[in-house]
Write a structure and sequence with these properties.
The complex is a heterodimer.
Chain A lengths: L7 H19 L4 H10 L19 H15 L1 H10 L4 H7 L12 H8 L3 H18 L5
Chain B lengths: L1 E5 L3 H12 L7 E4 L5 H13 L14 E7 L2 H9 L3 E5 L14 E3 L12 H22 L1
Parallel strand pairs in B: 1-3, 1-4, 2-3, 4-5
Classes of the chains: A mainly alpha, B alpha/beta.
């Protein structure tokens, strides 16, 4: 499955990846701490109750991240594939899989699949499933 | 790494070979096949596999694998298997001469595959994973 520049879901997921990256750099906090807080409260984080959250409280990127977090509870590989595909907080994936010096930039889906230890067909299947889940859960019309 | 392509049409076998050679970040594969008549093909191939001509260079580099594009006979397939190679069967008319054995992959020139037929990169990922698993097993035993 190839990425298309004019595909709205691809655009959204790339936006989400940028948001995660900016979140890390602009708010001056580690993404891991954000995630840790999120996990600590088992996904029931009160968005407006802390200084951690800034900007729009219900941005589309944040909603994507919530969906991704929920998906990870059921199928971690699904989310690992998504994060590598869009370079979205991929460091966690690299750490979890013991990938030293792995950077997704410039890599292909085949590279990502082998890094995760799965076949390319499995990788593409999980990616398609993740995209479909996000589309459904966000109520997107594509 | 030795991959032999059997079945299908010569054009489809060549298309699969071309796709495999074009995979970004993929292994450099030398596509070749003996051009001898049927009665001497296997012998020519075995002489090649025994000889030093496998050292041929691709784009100035030593290839990481041989892509034997036209496996027409079972004896050719056996010679490749004996040398540690694998046989992939190309979608289309099955070869009447080359047996489709357990573990052989079914491939198609289409990038994303079709049904149980794998696309070239998908098949390559299966091969690389199995080689990695084989290496892991060997290192555990060693």
């Amino acid at each position: 499955m190839r990425r298309a520049k004019d595909d709205p879901l691809d655009q959204l997921l790339e936006q989400w990846a940028r948001w995660l990256h900016d979140d890390h750099t602009e708010l001056g906090m580690g993404c891991s701490s954000f995630l840790a807080r999120w996990m600590d409260c088992k996904g029931d984080m009160v968005w407006g109750g802390s200084s951690v959250v800034q900007g729009p409280q219900d941005s589309i990127e944040r909603r994507v991240e919530l969906v991704v977090y929920e998906l990870a509870k059921r199928d971690q590989l699904l989310v690992d594939v998504l994060r590598l595909e869009y370079s979205a907080r991929w460091q966690e994936v690299a750490t979890r899989h013991g990938l030293k010096n792995y950077k997704p930039h410039g890599k292909t889906q085949l590279d990502h699949a082998l890094a995760l230890g799965v076949s390319l067909r499995t990788y593409k299947g999980r990616l398609a499933k993740a995209r479909a889940e996000i589309t459904t859960r966000l109520g997107m019309t594509l | 790494m030795i991959i032999g392509l059997a079945g299908g049409s010569p054009e489809d076998r060549q298309a699969v070979a071309n796709s495999l050679q074009a995979i970004k970040n993929g292994p450099s594969l030398w596509a070749w096949s003996v051009e001898s008549p049927l009665d001497t093909r296997a012998e020519s191939l075995m002489a090649f596999l025994r000889g030093r001509r496998r050292q041929r260079r691709v784009r100035g580099q030593r290839p990481q694998g041989l892509l034997y594009t036209h496996v027409l006979l079972e004896t050719e397939a056996q010679a490749l298997r004996d040398a540690g190679g694998v046989i992939w069967h190309v979608r289309g008319l099955p070869s009447r001469m080359v047996a489709n054995r357990h573990g052989d992959l079914q491939v198609t020139p289409e990038e994303d595959g079709a049904g149980h037929y794998l696309g070239p990169a998908e098949a390559l990922s299966e091969l690389l994973l199995s080689r990695r698993r084989g290496g892991d097993d060997a290192s555990r035993k060693g």
